[in-house]
Prior knowledge:
The chain is mainly alpha-helical. It has helices at about 5-10, 15-30, 35-55, 70-80, 95-110, 115-125, 130-140, 160-190, 195-210, 230-245, 245-255, 265-285, 300-315, 330-340, 355-370, 380-410, 415-425, 440-455, 460-465, and strands spanning about 375, 380. Helix 5 (about 95-110) runs parallel beside helix 9, helix 8 runs antiparallel to helix 10 (about 230-245) and helix 9 crosses helix 10 (about 230-245). The chain is globular. The protein starts with a helix and ends in a 19-residue tail after the last helix.
Amino acid sequence: MSTSTRIRGNNGEGSVNPFRRAWSTLSESAMASPARFAILIFTILILITTLLLTLPIARAGSGTGGTPLADALFTAVSAICVTGLTTVDMATHWSPFGNIVIILAMQVGGIGVLTMASILGLVVARRIGLRAKLIAASDTNAARVHGGPVSESQAVRLGEIGGLLFTVAASAIVIELAITALIVPRLLIEGFDPWTAIWQGFYLALSAFTNTGFVPFAPGMERFAADPWMLSVLSIAVFLGAIGFPVIFALGRWLRTRARLTLHARITLWTTLILIAFGGLVIAVLEWTNPATLGAQDGPVRPMTAVFTSIMSRSGGLSTVDIGEMNGSTLLVLDMLMFVGGGSASTAGGIKVTTLAVLFFAAVAEARGVDDMEAFGRRIPTDVLRLAVSIVLWGATIVATASVLVLHITKAPLDYVLFDVISAFATCGLSTGLTSNELPDAAKYVLAATMWAGRVGTVTLAAALAASQRRQLFRRAEERPIVG
Length: 484
């Protein structure tokens, strides 16, 4: 080989090959187990964010030292898992550097680790191969973490993953900038200076779209409790983030070609709207005369607050009233709404609205005495029901275990502990006030682990813990136990 050939090789492919080799290595690791890969990357990002937030430069005020490890870890997990719970005052505790770290953490956590990895791979390699498509597919459809074929009626087919990645990147940027443009003028009217209005407007827009729920100014959202413009804009941002990128992709395709909406998109949209309406109505009825919440507001403001709280309980985490002052009956309703959460492959948490819908369809089929679950003219296979039941059981187990531990550590009332634990698991961010700087460090670690498990996903977590998928070569004799 001539010297000129070696030079050309070093200057040409040599500068690109290391990146491609690194991406290929990550792809092979993800292909071996996308679920374990997601958990590994999530954990690494949390540790890096925690390290950055413990630095003195990340905390506001000179000479105050760094943030304690428990608070830094809790905030890092809450940001990466787009939860919104916090043990420090987000409006005053963090410096500009700390806020930048939190903003980046929210953005990465909202888009999704595997999706972000696929987008970076597309930028580096300038193409998206089969491996990268499968990585992204694992982030858009939880059923793909299992071996075997995946139904062609899924929300996004493998050949459409490239379009989905473009939709994720474009929709995230466009929606966040559009929401920022709608928020900034309102902050200027409120008295914020232009620079503060711009960066805090973007912070709030990002927090709403990613369903995080962090508020960068004091005293929080209470100052906008009677502002229909601000509450409507934030509600739209939370709704778009909560329905999921596959649904946004399906809606975009429907607008362009009038193609039939997928079953997943229809179930997600209808169930979400029904739960919002149901939650708003129940909250209004239960809190209408409570002088500490809706009862202290003017008549026209009360329904707006009830609907806003219903939307935020699905994973948004923003609130214009003191959640801790709500009636116990209302807290229980919010527990149920938070546990359900938002749409699959979205910035929301919970067991997901499609899981609830599948269980409802199964109950209807059983009541009718038919074998098949049906919805919108389509048949739902039984393996989806098994997955839905597993998700609910795993979620309930995580919530129950965390509640027992936090109850034992804090000795706080059950309704407050249960509410904040479900909020952590569903990555919602609403709080009764339990999560504060006075919370014992042990309880902070328990809630951080609950947020991590809730964001990673019960299906992904179960698949990652499973050693392997085995083919069963025989079937045992059938015998029916008595149920019910």
